[in-house]
């Protein structure tokens, strides 16, 4: 497995609070595969800026409410 | 397992089988005519068979998973597929360079054909292998 990026996210939490939206449905909505949504949620992949904005817009929040910088990271 | 990884496994297995079949018919033809390099014409049916089987297998996979099959690679998959293509290109280049060096020393055009053909098959297998490794490492 590759090195995890220093980005935290609340995608899973937001997905669950938005009517238990499935990973596949979120993937379809932003134009990525379910595997990519899984990788984002597990912090193994940082989405592009465009996808990050799309995710935030789907949940009706700001981008910094979804993604953050992991302060523990060097 | 993603559709792209499944596809790489299936097509990789198909290319390994095709490569082994190629070696088998090349050796059988060499023994038959008593020469080290069998004639190129023997491999036209081989190429047609491999292309036909590849199309049939891809079509069958697309029928089983039409949505995943028609979806283009997404932003996470694209760089992985590009990297796999880049590395398999190096494998092909190494095979072609080796084949050409051999041609310089041996001046055997038919052997050159077979070595280039083998390089194509090996680089295709390498591309699927790189795809599987990269997709697994990044998912």
Helix proportion of chain B: over 70%
Strand content of chain A: 5-15%
Largest sheet of chain A: 2 strands, antiparallel
Q: What series of H and E elements makes up the topology of chain B?
A: HHHHH
Q: What's the CATH architecture of chain A?
A: Orthogonal Bundle
Q: Within the largest sheet of chain A, what's the order of strands?
A: 1-2
- Tally the helices of chain B: 5
Percent strand of chain B equals under 5%
Give the CATH H-level superfamily of chain A. Answer: lambda repressor-like DNA-binding domains
What's the total helix number of chain A?
5
What structural class do you assign from the helix and strand content of chain A?
Answer: mainly alpha
| Major sheet details of chain B | none
Structural class of chain B: mainly alpha
Q: What does the average pLDDT of chain A come to?
A: 89
List how many beta strands of chain A DSSP finds: 2
End-to-end gap of chain B: 9 Å
Would you identify the regions of chain A where 5 or more consecutive residues have pLDDT less than 50? none
List the helices and strands and how they pair.
The complex is a heterodimer of chains A (74) and B (139).
Chain A: E1 7-9, H1 11-17, H2 23-30, H3 34-41, H4 49-59, H5 63-66, E2 67-69
Antiparallel strand pairs in A: 1-2
Helix pairs in contact in A: 2-3
Chain B: H1 3-33, H2 43-64, H3 66-70, H4 77-106, H5 109-137
């Amino acid at each position: 497995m590759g090195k995890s990026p220093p980005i935290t996210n609340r995608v899973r939490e937001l997905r669950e609070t938005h009517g238990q939206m499935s990973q596949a449905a979120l993937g379809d909505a932003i134009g990525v595969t379910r595997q990519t949504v899984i990788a984002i949620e597990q912090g193994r992949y940082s989405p592009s800026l465009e996808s990050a904005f799309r995710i935030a817009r789907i949940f009706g929040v700001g981008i910094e409410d979804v993604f953050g910088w992991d302060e523990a990271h060097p | 397992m993603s559709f792209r990884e499944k596809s790489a496994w299936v097509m990789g297995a198909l290319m390994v089988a095709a490569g082994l079949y190629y070696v088998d018919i090349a050796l059988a033809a060499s023994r038959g005519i008593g020469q080290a390099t069998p004639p190129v014409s023997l491999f036209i049916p081989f190429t047609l068979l491999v292309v036909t089987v590849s199309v049939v297998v891809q079509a069958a996979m697309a029928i089983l998973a039409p949505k995943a099959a028609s979806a283009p690679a997404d932003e996470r998959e694209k760089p992985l597929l590009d990297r796999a293509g880049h590395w398999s290109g190096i494998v092909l280049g190494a095979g072609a360079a080796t084949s050409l060096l051999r041609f310089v020393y041996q001046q055997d055009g038919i052997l050159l054909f077979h070595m280039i053909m083998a390089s194509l098959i090996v680089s295709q297998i390498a591309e699927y292998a790189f795809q599987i490794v990269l997709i697994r490492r990044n998912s």
